Amino acid sequence: MIRTPPPYLRVRLSAFMFLQYFTWGAWYVSMGAYLANELRFGGQQIGTAYSAFAVGSMIAPFFVGLIADRYFASEKMLGVLGLAGGLTMCALPQLTTFGTFYPGLLLYCLLFAPTLALGNSLSLHHLVDAKRDFPRVKVMSAVGWAAGGITLSLLHGDRTATQFYLAGSLSIAFGLFALTLPHTPPKKVGDNVTFGEVLGLDALALLKRPSFAIFVACMFLICIPLYFYFVMMAIYLTELGWSGITAKLSVSQFSDITFLYLLPIILKRLGYKKTIVVGILAWATRYLFLAGSVSVVDYAALLIFLAILLHGVCYDFLFITGQLYVDEVANERIRGATQGFIAFILWGVGAFVGTQLAGRVLAANTLAVPEGTILHDWSRIWLTPALGAVAVLVIFAIYFRNPDAKGGGTKHG
């Protein structure tokens, strides 16, 4: 039976992705500079603050499995979460000590994190050809992220509480728009949902396949160096004296848009393994560029912008490709559980370890005697995740094998 998609489906899903990532992009990268310069938090406190999103992502599968999958249509749950998250975000500027700010941020992340899995699940449910159409829809997430950063810089809010008011306002708009999305009823009404289903443990059966186990392990390991970029970048550029930081960092989204459009073609030619290898290599290269920018003063800005522009390869070749890989190797019965499990690894456990380690490395490399506005040993800081990414690259390149068929085994490639 041929599925008929709802009217203007891709346009509606694209607008949803735009609003969702505008909300995220308006605060996530710039928060480090706000915490360091306005609230005077230390490196470990900043790392812990960023780990709030990881905690939210680890709890999100429980929420989705116990509540969203059984009692509420996805679009209604997205609407409620967006509205509640917006109100919470607007309250954050009133919380100026770590003891009050962190719980408030954690509450927001508990509300926002489930929207990522729910939004992807809703999109994949309604798109007829997910491998072709999902990257096209996901393009607008890059546009939204860039719009959030550019708007924040235009408002001169990179280091101020303006970022939270902007993100909160867009979260409310995101919640209202979500209510207009195609109806997606709960999947398990009346079912007895087991604890294993809530955790996505059905997906663990796939770990018996060596390549899937290697894929999961490497996705976890690459998240550790990955989050150095998000925790550190705004702080680094602030110490260099850059202005309009979030607007400059948003240049990365033009690269993201380009490679999202190219991804279906690249995947068809290279396959999953080579595409992901290029993605991991891009992360190592990005950090080497940043490390080089510390010592090569005359070309520092060029190296930094090259690192920023690698984002499309870093993110799309790794994470969007990873989501599509999971969609291909998992059968219909466990596909949702597998996507939830991977989200738990990427945005949950991996992000928690990565942000905590980033904060510790930042604190450990604080200069005893500041060099002007430079307060940290940035060369050592950036080389740490570069070496980590190289180690993951070696493991993945040696042991991972491409899938040979949907839900089937693997093959060399």
Q: Can you offer a commentary on this structure?
A:
The chain has 15 helices and 4 strands. It is mostly helical. It has a single domain (9-411), classed as MFS general substrate transporter like domains (Growth Hormone, Chain: A, Up-down Bundle), CATH 1.20.1250.20. β3 and β4 (410-411) form a beta hairpin. The two termini are 34 Å apart. The model is unreliable at 405-413 (pLDDT under 50).
List its traits.
single chain; 413 residues; mainly alpha; Growth Hormone, Chain: A; two-stranded antiparallel ribbon; 15 helices; 74% helix; globular; disordered C terminus
List the helices and strands and how they pair.
Elements: H1 9-25, H2 31-37, H3 43-71, H4 74-91, H5 98-126, H6 130-154, H7 162-178, H8 195-199, H9 210-239, H10 245-249, H11 252-295, H12 300-309, H13 311-329, H14 335-364, E1 366-371, E2 374-376, H15 378-399, E3 402-403, E4 410-411
Antiparallel strand pairs: 1-2, 3-4
Structural domain count: 1
Mean pLDDT: 86
- Biggest sheet: strand arrangement: 1-2
Q: Count every helix, treating DSSP H or I runs of 4 or more residues as helices.
A: 15
Helix and strand succession? HHHHHHHHHHHHHHEEHEE
Content of β-strand: under 5%
Report the major sheet: 2 strands, antiparallel
Unreliable residue runs? 405-413
Q: How many strands in all?
A: 4
By CATH, the architecture is named Up-down Bundle
Shape from CA axes?
globular
- The secondary-structure class comes to mainly alpha
Radius of gyration: 20 Å
